[in-house]
Amino acid sequence: MYIGNHLSSSKGFENMGKEALKLDANTFAFFTRNPRGGAAKAIDNEDAIKLRKLMKEHNFGKLVAHAPYTMNVCAAKEDIREFSWNILKEDLQRMEYLPDNYYNFHPGSHVGQGGDAAIPVIADAVNSALMPEYTTTVLLETMAGKGSEVGRNFEEIRAILDLIKLPDKVGVCFDTCHVWDGGYDIVNDLDGVLKEFDRIIGLDKLKAVHFNDSMNVCGSHKDRHQKIGEGEIGLEALKAVATHPLLKGKPFILETPNDDEGYKKEIALVRSFDNGEV
Length: 278
Ligand code: FE
Ligand code: FE
Ligand code: ZN
Fold this sequence. Notes:
Order of helices and strands: EHEHEHEEHEEHEHHEEEHEH
Oligomer: single chain
Largest sheet: 8 strands, parallel
Shape: globular
Structural class: alpha/beta
CATH class: Alpha Beta
Number of domains: 1
Distance between the termini: 4 Å
CATH architecture: Alpha-Beta Barrel
Strand content: 15-25%
Bound molecules: fe (iii) ion, zinc ion
Strand order of the largest sheet: 2-1-12-9-8-6-4-3
Radius of gyration: 18 Å
Helix content: 25-40%
């Protein structure tokens, strides 16, 4: 399987690849810039090439880059919205230095505008940033529904996808903590949840998994991640997710509260679920 965690991009691309190898990971996530925002560093193309080589040599799965948390493309305030559209545009240009990977973002928070008003704005942002020649697939993350988050259920994700002009270049990142917190019972009815995902969005759109336990109960809309097996979702249910035939071969990204040693152990744990098969 393809499993990894979030790595810090501050030391460069190739070093993230080396870091992943140390953790016995074969994919990873990274913030395209400081997660709290700010300007992005210039891309070092030599460094990007070295990472691509390392990934090829070690049979890595696709990377799942993550947009900064400050990016809210449907923000009510004009200046934040414009800043966010620019980040999205610039990040997608930059992703082309690492071709054929995933770029995941939170659809956004509508802060009082209502989800229905925000949905077309989110789609417009993607439509303005995503070019036909790009090799990146843009992923919308399923959200816990905290505050005014858009993407709180499969219907909202589908509504955004329906307005995208390059549908083959967009997909969904299934966050187990968020889906659970959003009210989908993956503990008692994983098959039912995946069936619902298929009915509303289509399983062909499910490209990556954010693999997290949750501190809270199903439907809590809290978004507090927990270590695998130590939260309300629990080990058995997460094992069922990791070994589910419909999710086979997708990159699984851990976003659990761990240090390096903890991630190394957790990666080994998840690998033990399916005996290391991809
Ligand atoms: Fe996220
Ligand atoms: Fe996530
Ligand atoms: Zn989360």
